[in-house]
Amino acid sequence: MENCIFCKIIAKKIPSARVYEDEKVYAFLDLSQATQGHTLLVPKLHVSDVFEYEEKVASEVFACVPKIARTLEKAFPNMKGLNIINNNRELAYQSVFHSHIHLVPRYSREDDFHIHFGDHSYQYTAADLEKIAKRIRIAMETV
After folding, report:
1. Is the overall model pTM greater than 0.85, yes or no?
2. 102 is a domain residue
3. Nearest to 45, CA basis, from 55, 57, 56
4. CB–CB of 12/28 below 8 Å?
5. Is 39 left (phi over 0), alpha (psi -120 to 50) or beta?
6. Which of 60, 106, 111, 133 has a CA between 20 and 30 Å from the CA of residue 37?
7. Per the structure, how many domains does the chain have?
8. What is the CA radius of gyration of the chain?
9. What is the pLDDT of residue 80?
10. Which residue range(s) make up the domain with 81?
11. Is 102 a catalytic residue?
12. What φ, ψ does residue 105 adopt, rounded to 5°?
């Protein structure tokens, strides 16, 4: 896509700190570095978000996640964990509309990176959960 910053990075029109590249994917350091080693993994094919992935593209991209995770762990032996995040669409905090996966190394609970899953005071009942699961299973039949 002509005005996509990640497409320009992949095409080497904009410099990046490349971590990994093959025919289908490109991985580079995020400029913001939420933590040291914060890496973005992107498909070379422009797709806006996970909703646009064909199965083949998904397998090519997501198959690289463990390789990059293990590489980060080897490069940063003091890494204690890793967050893998994929934001899809604006409401889910996607800011660059070329699909990308964040791999964020974690070194301590005191770093400046946090994920909040909301207020857990409401407890879903087994019946609530089954109703939600049934709705998803029915939708799955048409995907």
Report:
1. yes
2. yes
3. 57
4. no
5. beta
6. 60
7. 1
8. 18
9. 96
10. 5-115
11. no
12. -60, 145
Q: Where are the strands (E) in 36-137, listed by range?
A: 39-43, 81-85, 101-106
Is the residue at 44 inside a domain?
Answer: yes
Q: Which two tokens stand for residue 104?
A: 């964020």
Residues lower than pLDDT 50 in the chain: none
Mean pLDDT of the chain: 95
Residue 49 CA to residue 53 CA, distance in Å, equals 7
Q: Which of 55, 40, 24, 45 is nearest to 94 (CA)?
A: 40
Q: What is the pLDDT of residue 118?
A: 84
- Residue 121 located in a structural domain: no
Kindly report, residue by residue over 126-141, the tens digit of the pLDDT: 999 999 999 999 999 9
Q: State the residue for tokens 């087994």.
A: 126
- Does residue 17 contact residue 75 with C-beta atoms inside 8 Å? no
Q: Report the alpha-carbon distance of residue 114 to residue 23 in Å, rounded.
A: 33
Task: Give domain status of residue 15, yes or no.
Answer: yes
Quote the pLDDT of residue 20.
Answer: 97
